């Protein structure tokens, strides 16, 4: 999970910041009013393999978390158990190994 968060923050930091600001500014209606920003994060991260792996491996707990958020728009703290289950799943996801025979080349010395 840490790797996925790092990838997202590194490559999609602007989108994450905008979404976070929107959610904080609209506690009663963030699901509706910030949806377009949530989608921009999804588009941004869709090219990163670790995030795709987490989405696939943890789809069920993530969907349960999203459903809880929809049902508890004004009280997202009620979804702590769903968050815990999703994070527990995501922590188990390991980055895929490169195909057999493919080796990373060291960077040339500067």
From TrEMBL:
<keyword id="KW-1015">Disulfide bond</keyword>
<dbReference type="Pfam" id="PF16860">
    <property type="entry name" value="CX9C"/>
</dbReference>
<feature type="domain" description="IMS import disulfide relay-system CHCH-CHCH-like Cx9C">
    <location>
        <begin position="5"/>
        <end position="49"/>
    </location>
</feature>
<protein>
    <submittedName>
        <fullName>Coiled-coil-helix-coiled-coil-helix domain containing 5</fullName>
    </submittedName>
</protein>
<dbReference type="Pfam" id="PF06747">
    <property type="entry name" value="CHCH"/>
</dbReference>
<feature type="domain" description="CHCH">
    <location>
        <begin position="58"/>
        <end position="91"/>
    </location>
</feature>
<dbReference type="GO" id="GO:0045333">
    <property type="term" value="P:cellular respiration"/>
</dbReference>
<dbReference type="GO" id="GO:0005758">
    <property type="term" value="C:mitochondrial intermembrane space"/>
</dbReference>
<dbReference type="InterPro" id="IPR031731">
    <property type="entry name" value="CX9C"/>
</dbReference>
<dbReference type="InterPro" id="IPR010625">
    <property type="entry name" value="CHCH"/>
</dbReference>
<dbReference type="InterPro" id="IPR052848">
    <property type="entry name" value="CHCH_domain-containing_protein"/>
</dbReference>
